[in-house]
Write a structure and sequence with these properties.
The protein folds into two domains: 2-72 and 148-317, 2-Layer Sandwich (BirA Bifunctional Protein, domain 2); 343-436, Anticodon-binding domain (Rossmann fold), CATH 3.40.50.800. It has 437 residues and is α+β, with helices and mostly antiparallel strands. Helix 2 (40-59) packs across helix 9. It is built from 13 helices and 23 strands. A hairpin with a 5-residue loop joins strand 22 (408-413) and strand 23. Strands 3-9-10-16-13-12-11 form a seven-stranded mixed beta sheet, sandwiched between helices. A five-stranded mixed beta sheet has the order 20-19-21-22-23, sandwiched between helices. Bound molecules: glycyl-adenosine-5'-phosphate (GAP). Glycyl-adenosine-5'-phosphate (GAP) binds at residues 148, 150, 180, 182, 191-192, 195, 197, 199, 264-267, 304, 306-308, 310-311.
Amino acid sequence: MANQNEEMMEKLVSLCKRRGFIFPSSEIYGGLTSIYDYGPLGTELKKNIKAFWWRWMVQKQANIVGLDSAILMSPRIWEASGHVESFTDPLVDCKKCKQRFRADLLESVAVCPNCGGELTQARQFNLMFKTFMGPVEDTSHVVYLRPETAQGIYVNYLNVLNSSRLKVPFGIAQIGKAFRNEITTENFIFRTREFEQMEMQFFVQPNSDQEWFEHWKANRIDYYYHLNIRPEKLRFHEHDKNELAHYAKAAYDIQYEFPFGWKELEGVHNRTDFDLRRHQEFSGKDLTYFDDATRERFIPYIIETSAGVDRTLLTVLVDAYEEQELEKDTRVVLHLAPSIAPIKAGIFPLVKKDGMPEIAEKIFNLLSPHYPVYMDVSGAVGRRYRRQDEIGTPYCITVDSETLENETVTIRDRDSMEQTRVKIESLRLFLLDKIEG
Ligand code: GAP
């Protein structure tokens, strides 16, 4: 089973490279460990995942707004947040083979899992990338690449509150890059040093935190069901005292069963008033909130939902991947939700004559302003279907001899492989219903 899972991951990684989803970064220079680039299809998929999250977390919520804060921020923010002091992992080195490990992920902290050699004592290693602002490279010019997007939200909490008509409870959402100098990176894009987060911080009255924590836990797992992730592959994992981050009173991971085991996909955290209280203390600004209804003044508690874009992308690919043994060959298919599929429809003229390519082009021009569609004119139609199945295209439209008579085309459904005849003029609405329905 372990081998089968490894093989499946190898096939997926190879598909991602071959079809232009994900490439190793700086590849022509030998690559840069654990950094990846997204190719044409990966870029579309990533964009669609972020749009899906934004619709769910911002557009559909009456009391959540968006933000796009800078990656570089005052270094005082990371002192206040506790990251300078506590955002560390325990690092051990093997004295024999020199490999490095995260001590908390090892079964035994005495023996190297690679060569059986002796390990050094664990020392705390800060995960933040440091750089310098301006031409002078000394300690007074240090700035950090943000390790989470959350702090950009906390330090803009007053700006958002003062520039909107929001009242507690309300949320601020943000999608953006984060950087962590991870000791160990693993499993393709699962844990990388540069990645993107989709985070939402929900500001609530102190005594309503438990209720909102339960609300967001339920909401976030429901979101993954709507993303077509198989429910049996999802579960909650509650953090025990040893796992809790320095800021959290309670935390649940939403885990997915990857081929390499159950792993965190998203965290839902009760951060209490830790962050705003610390920023109030370090900045000297009053971050309290006055509630008109109850006539109370308080520092809001924060319920956080924090998901990785890249990890979600890996999850949807793993979950969607299927190999079907057919009579003559193996069909590789990605059962991606139509809303996030990089290409929504393939358009094929059955043959390259009798005016069929021209009609296919007209269909391309009809649909392409609304969705990414792809025209494929060469090769046997069966092979053209396979090429689209492998990249998760949910529908394939074929122009055939009947099209010439009555202006209808066939639409073949990726998952059922059933074909339906539809008038060319109804194609746009047909797809709209399927993709957004
Ligand atoms: N603001 C809270 C926070 O950052 P986290 O549990 O450290 O919490 C949240 O990270 C999510 O960010 C994770 O569930 C994961 O999806 C993603 N993530 C964290 N580190 C990552 C890494 N090195 N590579 C890819 N994704 C990562």
